[in-house]
Every structure is written in structure tokens, then in C-alpha cells.
Amino acid sequence: MGIRRPLRPLAGRMALGAALLAAACLSAPAAEAAARPGIPLGDHGAAKMEFQLQELAKLLPEADVTHAPAGLDPVIWEAFVPKDNEMSARRVALGRKLYFDTRLSKDGTVACATCHDVTRGFTDQLKVSEGIGNQLGQRNAPTVLNTALLQVAFLDGRSPTLDHQATQPILNPVEMGMPDAAAAVKAISGDPEYQQAFKEAYGRDVNFEDLGRAIAAFERTLVFLDSPFRRFLEGDPNAISADARAGWDLFNGKARCVTCHHMSPGNPLGTDNRFHNIGVSARHQDFESLATQALKLLKADPSEKRLDELALSTPMSELGRFMVTKNRADIGAFRTSILLNVAITPPYMHDGSLPTLWDVMDHYNKGGEANLFLDGGMEPLALTEAEIDQLVAFMFSLTDSRLAAENERQLIAQRNAAARVRAFRDDKIARRKKLAFEDRIKDATRRPK
Ligand code: HEC
Ligand code: HEC
């Protein structure tokens, strides 16, 4: 087994010496997270599809999919199931088959499960994702767990529903790379099993829209809300540690996380479903010229396919929500992340730039990277090291109990990595010993255009 995943794409592209150098620089959490004895690996370093299916069966025993998932109010659930895609066992079974089917990619090596791997918290735990021909995109793959409960899909909200979202990666040139919908349909429509399954599920022949619907129906079974924190909220004070309880108080108080990450029994995901610029890797951006460039390109070709390409494979990715609304106030804004199960989906943020939850806390403690579009809710927090540990302990209590083993593995890997290096920490700004925003914003505006 050993170290593999983060190395392979590099090794393919570089001379041996450079690859060895890269190996030496391989970030520690990536190396530790890569060591997973007993998990057989297939294309692109994802767990083998058959193995993922076995693991999935353990996580999701047979259940009546027409009922609301455990822990959700049926009335709330109904609002998240589209009228043209009511849940049925046949639809879910079809979607499950499609989710793991690499035939839906141009070179037959990539499926949804390549980047949203059952054994890795339904993401790939990579900085940015790798698609056909070992191409890297610009964005970090979020988990598909609980996406059924989101109001819009994608980190910039460019897709209105899961049903629509599921068709997009199939057509994206750096993900699954099918030239068009017809090619995707053709790849599977010769298979008699699919012909029958589509007929039974939707009463029609194999077609692209129903393919998206079926995958979305399967994703709607991936509701994982049963965390120790939930049991704490339901009245068991000992369901989480004293540190995690202190972290929850900070979350709602001094650290002000709650202003964007709403979290309550009625809103368990921990997102406000809104978009904010929180200064992730903003230091490297010339937002103004990127925005001008994006407007020109989107004027020339306003199609959703073009938008998807610009978002995933160009530096314009960093513009985030602006690419969808063209409102300058949305420059660098991304949807507030889901916090449930967050501990098992490193690295963090839309660009995967923060390796551990300790790095995330260092980022917030200094109020993010200053930039002209920074959300007003971001400012230095002056959290102590003990308080940072408590907030991290709180976030580790948000993982569904079925995923507890991976949570434990991540706790060890991330804690060890953070003990070695905290690259995003800046105590002077965090404690306001340096004038934070005022000084830094002057630098930002002085920067040559
Ligand atoms: C090559 C890797 C890759 C493949 C293959 C892939 N995805 Fe993704 N997925 C991503 C990345 C990266 C994002 C974030 C893109 C963005 O938000 O702009 C994403 C976003 C998503 C989201 C949105 C989650 C959210 O929080 O809004 C869902 C749902 C999703 N993918 C499901 C799927 C499905 C279903 C398939 C198969 C049809 C699939 N993905 C194939 C990498 C991949
Ligand atoms: C001003 C709104 C805002 C505040 C305040 C805020 N967040 Fe966030 N949070 C976001 C947004 C937006 C993202 C996604 C940013 C991105 O991807 O670039 C995010 C992402 C994250 C992530 C990464 C999740 C992932 O899967 O990549 C974590 C963890 C997180 N926040 C925790 C916290 C904690 C803890 C606090 C309090 C210290 C906090 N947030 C305060 C808006 C906010």
C-alpha cells in the first residue's frame, strides 16, 4: 500500500528527479491519509469500485427509500424531493449503478465514485480532483453526503438541483470528458440491463435527463446526520467531550462561526446556503482583471457548459459566485460549507488549500486574507491555542457514527500534521498586535492592476 495517491499524477508528468523532490515535499497529512491498509485501489487511486460497493452496503442496509431518512421530519424531506423524481427503490438502484460506472467517462477510467469515494467520506481527500487523462481541476471535491439537503449545488451554486448537477461532471472535459449528452447515453444504452432498468424506473428509454435523476435519487439516500453532536443537542450532555462542548460555546460566541454556519436541530448541516468571500488564498488573486476577463468570455459564450469549464479549469475559478451572478459584491464568494462530517473530508476550502482543521482555525483566527471583497463578518478573533483545540474538538464531534473509524483516523493524522507545521498561523494579526484590516487593505489597493 504505502504512499501513493498524491504522487501518481505528479510522477506521470515529471522527470524522476522532480518526482522525488515532490515526494519529499508531499504534505504530511496527505501522506498519512494515503496509508490505508486493507483498501484495494483502482484507477486514479480511488478505492476499487467493487470494494466501495461492499462498504456502501455496510453503511446503508436495505431500507424503504420512499420514507424520509432517519432523523428528518417527513414534511421537511418532502420539500427536497422534486415532484418529477419521487423516490423509488428502482430509481435508487439505477442511480447507484450509474454512480459507480466508469463507462460514463470518455476513457472508461472515471466514475462519480472516483472523486466521491465511499471510503473517503464521499470525496477524494485530495487538494483538487483528478479526472480523465490525469487532468487536475481547480477545485476541491466536496462530499456528496447530505447534499440532498442543500438548496443549490456546486460551491458557487451554479446548478439549481442535484438532478441537474449530476449530468455536469459527465460533460466536463477535465472530469469525465464526454463530448455531449448523446455520447454519454450511447456509452450505456447498448446494455440490456440499463435498457430494462430505465424502463422500470422512469417508463422511458435510456436518456440523459433520467440518468441525472436516477443518480440524484441515489444521492438522496446518503443522508448522514447521526453524529455525537446531534445526540448532545437532543439532550445528552455526555454525548460529546467537555472540549467539544466548550468549542460549541465558542462557535456561537467569541469565534462567531454561527453567523454563517447556522446549526440547529432544524438546520443540521451548518450552512446558511449563502455565499461569502472569507479570504481563502485571496493573497494570490488579482480579482479585478480576472473579473474583466470572465465577463468577456461569458459574453462570447454564455452557455452553462462554458461556465462549468471556466469554473473548473481556469484561474477564474477563484471568482466563485461572481461567475454566476456577475455581481461584483460576489467576487471570491463561495457557498458556506456544510459542517456535518467535515472532519473526514480534508483538505479544506474550495481550493483545498488548508490541510487540517487546525489550519482552518488559523485562517479564521487572523480574519482570513484581506481583500477588497472580504465579508464583513470576517475579522481577527484572538482565540487562544486552547480555544482553537476546543473548536477543532467540536468539529470532530460532527461526524455520523457510521463513519466513526474514518473520523478517528483523521483525528490522528490531522493532529500529527498540525503538530509539525501550522503554515497559516499569524498570531500578531489574530491578537491584533498588528493593525489588521486597515493596513492590509492599503496593500491590496496599492497592488498594481
Ligand atoms: C474528477 C472528479 C469528479 C468527478 C468524476 C465527479 N465529481 Fe462531483 N465534484 C467534483 C468537484 C471538484 C466538485 C466541486 C465543483 C464546484 O463546486 O465547482 C464537485 C461537486 C459535486 C457536487 C456538489 C456538492 C456541493 O456541495 O454543492 C455533487 C452533488 C457532485 N459533485 C456529485 C457528483 C456526481 C453525481 C458525479 C458523477 C456523475 C460526480 N460528482 C463526478 C469532482 C468530481
Ligand atoms: C462570513 C461567513 C463565515 C464565517 C464567519 C465562518 N465561516 Fe466557515 N466557511 C464559510 C464559507 C463561505 C466557506 C467556504 C469557503 C471556500 O470554500 O472558499 C467556509 C468553509 C469552512 C470550512 C471548510 C469546510 C470544507 O469542507 O472545506 C470549515 C471547517 C469552516 N468553514 C469552519 C468555520 C468555523 C469553525 C468558523 C468560526 C471560527 C467559521 N467557519 C466561520 C463562511 C464562514
β-strand number: 2
The coarse silhouette is globular
Query: Under CATH, the topology of the largest domain is which?
Result: Cytochrome Bc1 Complex, Chain D, domain 2
Instruction: Count every helix, treating DSSP H or I runs of 4 or more residues as helices.
Output: 22
CATH architecture label of the largest domain: Orthogonal Bundle
Stretches where pLDDT falls below 50 for ≥5 residues?
A: 1-32
Q: What is the total number of structural domains? A: 4
Q: How is the main sheet built?
A: 2 strands, antiparallel
Order of helices and strands: HHHHHHHHHHHHHHEHHHEHHHHH
CATH superfamily of the largest domain: Cytochrome c-like domain
Beginning-to-end CA distance, first to last residue: 48 Å
- Can you tell me the CATH class of the largest domain? Mainly Alpha
Mean pLDDT: 90
| Proportion in β-strands | under 5%
- Radius of gyration using CA atoms only: 22 Å
Order of strands, main sheet, comes to 1-2
Summing up helix and strand content along with how strands pair, one would put the structural category as mainly alpha
Helical fraction: 40-55%
Bound molecules: heme C
Structure description:
With 449 residues, the protein is mostly helical. The chain has four domains: 1-38, no CATH class; 39-219, Cytochrome c-like domain (Cytochrome Bc1 Complex, Chain D, domain 2); 228-285 and 332-446, Cytochrome c-like domain (Cytochrome Bc1 Complex, Chain D, domain 2, Orthogonal Bundle); 287-330. The protein is 43% helix and 1% strand. The chain has 22 helices and two strands. The chain has helices spanning 8-13, 16-25, 28-34, 49-59, 74-80, 89-99, 112-115, 162-165, 168-171, 181-189, 192-202, 208-219, 228-233, 242-252, 287-300, 304-313, 322-325, 357-365, 385-396, 404-420, 427-430, 437-446, and strands at residues 275-276, 334-335. A two-stranded antiparallel sheet has the order 1-2. The longest helix has 17 residues, at 404-420. Bound molecules: heme C (2 copies). One heme C (HEC) binds at residues 110, 112, 114-116, 129, 131, 137, 139, 141-142, 144, 147, 150, 153-156, 162, 165-166, 169-170, 175-176, 215, 311.
